[in-house]
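**User:**
If convenient, please work through this fold.
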Amino acid sequence: MSSFFLLVSKCLQARDMAYCPYSRFPVGAAILTADGAIITGCNVENASYGLTVCAERTAVQRAVVEGHTRFTAIAVTCDIKDRFVGPCGACRQVLMEFGSDWIVYLTKPDGSYKETSLSELLPLAFSPAHLAKN
């Protein structure tokens, strides 16, 4: 199975693991690292809503713990069937921490997808490069 199809499959599987008793809005993400590993994440809600962690950030945090900081792609999915849904603004900013060259696959529950990029999803982004200029 190609890494792309495996990435999409893993994000769909991760969505099924979401802990979302409050919103009932499961989200899954799968990140492809520069060396070919796939790291997954799902949203994990909390009764104190502000402490909820999105699927994309869960995947990034897991990847960093496993020693990965270079990424090439992410696939994200939720249960919305009639349109493609992208990461929230906070997740877009967290992804940008690790570069702007990500391919982003917005994936519907049936596996259909729309390919975009992090640069398209977060134009004129604030990045670590801005801090280096001070």
